[in-house]
Amino acid sequence: MTQLQEDKNALTTALKELQKSENQVKTNTKTVTSQLQKLFEEMKTAMIQKENNILSDIQSIEKKQLADITKVKKKMEERRDEAMKHLWSLHKMREEPDIFLFFKEFKVAKDRVASQDFSIAMVNVVVRQLYDAWIDKYRQQMQNFMSELDQQLQSVKLGLHILIPLQTQVECFYLDSWHSPCHSQCALDLVQVNQASRSHRRRSEGNMQKKKSELRWKE
Description:
Layout: H1 2-93, H2 99-115, H3 132-161, E1 163-167, E2 171-175, H4 183-218
Helix pairs in contact: 1-2, 1-4
């Protein structure tokens, strides 16, 4: 009866420790998952911000270049319109029947044209694109970063997979908590279970020896 009670107590203690281990597995998964999700969110946020900054800079450059071109276009349109007005005026003079008046108006028109600036201004834009070598370089850097990230996170996977077996009369395993603050306490509890089990085994062996001695004495 006493031995059965001890067996029952040992099993109850072992089950409590197994429940602790089960809860710790869930806590470990929840904690590590939350930390990694936060890390990846920070990485995604940083990448999106970097992308927005770079694209914004490119758009700002485009805006300035287009503004410069628009300014030159406006100036060229004004000069073209002024040249067309002078051409129309000259064509109109050809209809003047008075030769004296014609030369007089022509001289005035010629001086007016000479005072105008009809020079040409151009804005040449060269073809621009990313070089394949530049793209390949940063793709390689991205691959190197991903490989390094895999190596860094490998320790997390290994930490979650470690099982430290503890041999007792009941099948009891202790899951090593990855960076868990309760590691020492949980280990101490399982050692106590192991010690209780060994004490129980020694008492059982002592009882068996005692029964054998009694049988030999009766014989």
